[in-house]
Amino acid sequence: MNGAKSLVQTLLAAGIDTCFANPGTSEMHFVAALDQVPGMKCVLGLQENVVTGMADGYYRLAGKPACTLLHCAPGLANGMGNLHNARRARSGIVNIVGDQAVYHRPFDAPLTGDTAGMAQTVSAWVHTSTSTPDLGRDAVEAVRAASTYPGQIATLILPADVSWQEGGVVGQPLQAPQPPAIDGGAVERAARTLRDNSDVLILLAGPAVLAQGQALAWRVAQATGASVMASYVTSHVARGRGNMQLERVPYNMEAAIKALERFRQIILVNATPPVGFFGYPGMPSIQHRSDAVFHTLSRPDQDPVEALQALVKALGAPEVRMPDPGPRPEVVRGAPTPEGLAQTLAALMPENAIISDESISYGRGFYKFTHAAPAHDWLHLAGGAIGDGMPVATGAALGAKKQRRVINLQADGSAMYSLQSLWTQAREQLPVTTIILNNSKYNILIGEYANVGATPGETAMSMLDLGNPALDWVRMANGMGVDAARATTLEACAELMTRSFDKQAPFLIELMI
């Protein structure tokens, strides 16, 4: 068999059964192998940043890596924004990136680039295969790297001749390494800190904010009086009834500093000390108090459930019920507001829904109005590179096997980075309801402009305004095969949401805010 067939068979044997693709000429033998070897679900994205974002969303719901298929250095470059986000989200992805044939590379053809150098910036593992018989072995190493807890990006660079030459050998799957063991000393130090202090914050991140981690953290908090928060940079949170009424560290620097100022002791559970996204004139970089003492219960590469179970045992913390968040909200009527939209969402979302949230500034207060919603998963932009909400929603729908409704809360400006996701949703008939929050501007940047001490004038506003010409999301969605409608009131938005939830198909609501 040729190298391409050995690669497909190796990926399938290692548990990779979904490929998000935007291929080119150097990948045609791999495309042929995907056609000839049964078992791989192939999903086309019309731009590479959609492809990589879909792979991120898929991992968050499926709990296992997919592979991407990208075309040479420029294709990888196009997908790097959402690979950055996926790296910050600690999602497992195997990138297959085509490259010039080994013998052709010295001629510096137009698409030749430093593929490995670019891949290093967003990958934990990078390797260029140069031998067809070794390709299968290289592939199992890539899958092993991507599957390393809690998830990593692995990039396998595939020269075209390594793909088409005969002599391929199917690699034998390798077991992913176990997470490093929890340090018993760290558990005892955390327990002692909780016993001896009243100003303790337990800061959760990574898998610690899923249901099992939250239940354990709540037991610790109830037994000790400690407070619990989630890191702002959190990719996937279990929310709604049966979960903690958990809030994240705020994005805004002043709000974050105020929220953390009373905590002298902070226990990190897969989290890192909170810092601002940016430096601002006259503001510190850190969001915590300068004399705060940090205690690492578990690092991001360790299992937080194991760590919290050990802490519960050390404290003798009894089982406790989650507090009742109160009655489910009712649909709000009238002009759209962030609070009204959040309550309406909580009133209507189906059981076990998935929220892909790239609402940016409009949605920063959504949490406190949605605690009484049915249990659901909430997916966040983890790396700050805008343009992941729509592809993450698309990948999440596939990772959930189309069995759960995905609701994409999407700012209009960042949606333009990856609106091609709508086409894939239509092609795959995915149950995704997209709510475009159309304020016709980069509102977050207007706020950031003020944060650096300036008032936007005509030239500045021309770079922050999206209203000239106006974006028509209904027509753009229709042009990609997605049914859509515009709403100017919350009751109209509610009616459209309800209608969309009854269909096994994508739907877009352009909400004028």
Task: Summarize, please.
By secondary structure, the protein is α/β, with parallel strands linked by helices. Helices cover 37% and strands 17% of the residues. The strands form three sheets. It has a seven-stranded mixed sheet with strand order 9-13-12-14-15-17-16, with helices on both faces.
Characterize the structure shown:
It is a single chain. By secondary structure, the protein is of the alpha/beta class. It has 3 domains: 3-164, Rossmann fold, CATH 3.40.50; 184-315, TPP-binding domain (Rossmann fold), CATH 3.40.50; 338-512, 3-Layer(aba) Sandwich (Rossmann fold), CATH 3.40.50.970. Helix content is 37%, strand content 17%. It has 20 helices and 17 strands. The protein has helices at residues 3-13, 28-36, 48-62, 72-78, 80-89, 115-120, 135-146, 160-164, 184-196, 211-224, 253-260, 304-315, 338-348, 389-399, 412-415, 421-428, 443-451, 458-462, 473-479, 490-501; strands at 18-21, 41-44, 66-70, 93-99, 125-128, 153-159, 200-204, 227-230, 236-239, 265-269, 293-298, 354-358, 376-380, 406-411, 432-438, 483-487, 507-512. The strands form 3 sheets. It has a 7-stranded mixed beta sheet with strand order 9-13-12-14-15-17-16, sandwiched between helices. Strands 2-1-3-4-6-5 form a 6-stranded parallel beta sheet, sandwiched between helices. Helix 3 (48-62) crosses helix 14, helix 9 crosses helix 12 (304-315) and helix 13 packs parallel to helix 20 (490-501). It is globular, with a radius of gyration of 24 Å. The model has no long low-confidence stretch (mean pLDDT 96).
